[in-house]
Amino acid sequence: MISEVADEADLDEEQESHFDKVRRTLGTVEPLTEDHESENLIKTARQQITVEIITISEKKEERDAE
């Protein structure tokens, strides 16, 4: 899902705003987790969001350089 959000991101919008809904969902679910596997999945999702924000930023820079 995170990759799909990044793929469909509008380069004219703030990069981080594309992931607001996903971040809110992770924040809601996180306190309910009771095992390390779930905590690791949430941590991995947050890391992927960071990577995708960088990717979107790079795409925007490439587009703007043209």
Note the total helix count: 3
Helicity level, as a percent range?
55-70%
Computed over alpha carbons, the radius of gyration is: 14 Å
Distance between the termini: 29 Å
Q: Shape, please? A: elongated
Secondary structure tally: strands = 0
Which structural class is indicated by helix and strand composition? mainly alpha
The biggest sheet, with number of strands, parallel, antiparallel or mixed sense and barrel status, is:
none
* Elements, N to C (H/E): HHH
| Beta-strand proportion | under 5%
Low-confidence stretches: none
- Output mean pLDDT: 94
* Whole-number total of structural domains: 1
Task: Summarize the structure in words.
With 66 residues, this protein is an all-alpha fold. The protein is built from three helices and no strands. It has helices spanning 2-7, 20-29, 36-65. The longest helix is centred in the last third of the chain and has 30 residues, at 36-65. It starts with a helix and ends with a helix.
